[in-house]
Amino acid sequence: MNTKPDIIFICSDQWNARYLRCAGHPQVQTPHLDALATSGCIFDAAYTPSPVCMPARASLASGLYPHAHGFFCNYTGKLFPSEQITLFRCLQEAGYTTAKIGKYHYFSLEWGQDYEDYRDYYDQLGLDWAEETSTPFQGPFLNTGYSRLLKKEGLLDTFITDIGDRYVDGQYTPQPSPLPPDLTPDGYVCRQTLAYLNRAPTDKPLFLFASFPGPHPPLDAPGKYAKMYDPADIVLPENYNEKRCKYGRQAIAEMTAQYMGKITHFDDRVGEIIAALKKRGNWENTVIVFTSDHGERMGEHGLVSKTGFEEGSARVPLIIGGPVVASGHRNASPVSFLDLFPTFLDLADAEIPDYCQAESLLPIVIGKTDSVHDAVFSEISRQDQFCYMVRDARWKWSIQAQNERLYDLQNDPSEMQNLAQSPAHADTAQRLRNRLLTFLTDTQLNHARGYKPLFTRIGMQFPTEDPAERKRIIHDRLRQVHK
């Protein structure tokens, strides 16, 4: 009988942390995630280690910040080294069946390539079952299980035409999906997740990573979700900046309506997965984790997309729930998406590698402590410049394109007043600059950790203290080398 819990990790892409009803959003409908939060722990100050897909996902898989694993953007022209990706292998070593379905983004395919050609790579990552799909904008020029399904259903040309048009009109064009909900990329990931749960082995604990492409653009809510939110009723964020925004209020409202439609569609898929888990027979021994790799500004400060350290971009939703960790509380301390690496291993009673640059959140979830960090960090490389963010319990400092920002998030959660140049807050800004330097120094990846000098290593091998006997042993061993 399994005593270790099944761990179900549901990850979204580009989800603004405000867009959950349980996080206080006045309009969006997310009943299934709200229910998960009610019985679990919701984190109100969770941040991505990098506000862009590939670096954040590589961090989660490796337990390292981007400056340690070296991936800072969405395209590198090479695979993320499988020998550095240890999460899945650690879980396998702890006795888990490991599966991942959906978006990976550990590498980028070229025109006409097929993920099926990378089976050996997925095995090296430590995945017992692997099924990768792409973002919608990559989908039309790749051969994947998803494109083959669309072809079988007679919808591939519809998909190609829709995405092709958006390449011209712009990825933020708010236009309903021409595909039925269960055949959108998110619908497909849900279908494949449910199918896997129906056949997943039950003789070992399960780690299942369902990685959804949404609500990342295109802004194309499907079916009933496309009309669920009326743009005329959308309440724009407090920090919407019309002067800075290249889109007008009406355009942002229309984008947001589609974005929220995709979110509610996603939430309904979460409900289907939870229902399937309850039928599987191990529900009382299940943990469910929901988060996103990074956020989406969606009009905040007049901006869309990610890549910045604004709350909409760098902060992510994070809920840890399920019967195993039922607690029903929320936590306001700063935590990181990267912390899920040791959290999953902690839940699995697995050894956490000594190089891991994060902390398990399980002590917070079960109420043993209120915090595990004094600060968390985010980083990105843009236009050949390294950019950084430091977030402690109250303050957020960042530097990007040589522009410093300092916000008092306790009194200014919408980041309306930049205090970086304020003499009254000079000490706070300098303290956080110094904290960044300490972070960068302490988290260099040391491949020489545990090194012992040659004389120490040789000396440790002798069972005797007698010098003559030691010399005899070393002479014999050296001669053995040359026989």
Describe this structure in words.
- 33% of the residues lie in helices and 16% in strands.
- The protein has 15 helices and 15 strands.
- Helix 8 packs parallel to helix 9.
- It has 3 domains: 6-373, Alkaline Phosphatase, subunit A, CATH 3.40.720; 379-442, Arylsulfatase, C-terminal domain (2-Layer Sandwich); 452-483, no CATH class.
- With 483 residues, the chain is α/β, with parallel strands linked by helices.
- The strands form 3 sheets. The protein has an 8-stranded mixed beta sheet with strand order 5-4-6-1-7-9-2-10, with helices on both faces.
- The radius of gyration is 24 Å and the shape is globular.
Secondary-structure map:
Blueprint: E1 6-13, H1 31-39, E2 41-43, E3 46-47, H2 53-62, H3 66-69, H4 87-93, E4 97-102, H5 119-125, E5 129-132, H6 145-152, H7 156-169, H8 185-199, E6 206-215, H9 249-280, E7 286-292, H10 311-314, E8 315-316, E9 318-321, E10 329-331, E11 335-336, H11 340-347, H12 362-365, E12 375-382, E13 385-392, E14 395-400, E15 403-408, H13 426-442, H14 454-459, H15 467-481
Parallel strand pairs: 1-6, 1-7, 2-10, 3-11, 4-5, 4-6
Antiparallel strand pairs: 2-9, 3-8, 7-9, 12-13, 13-14, 14-15
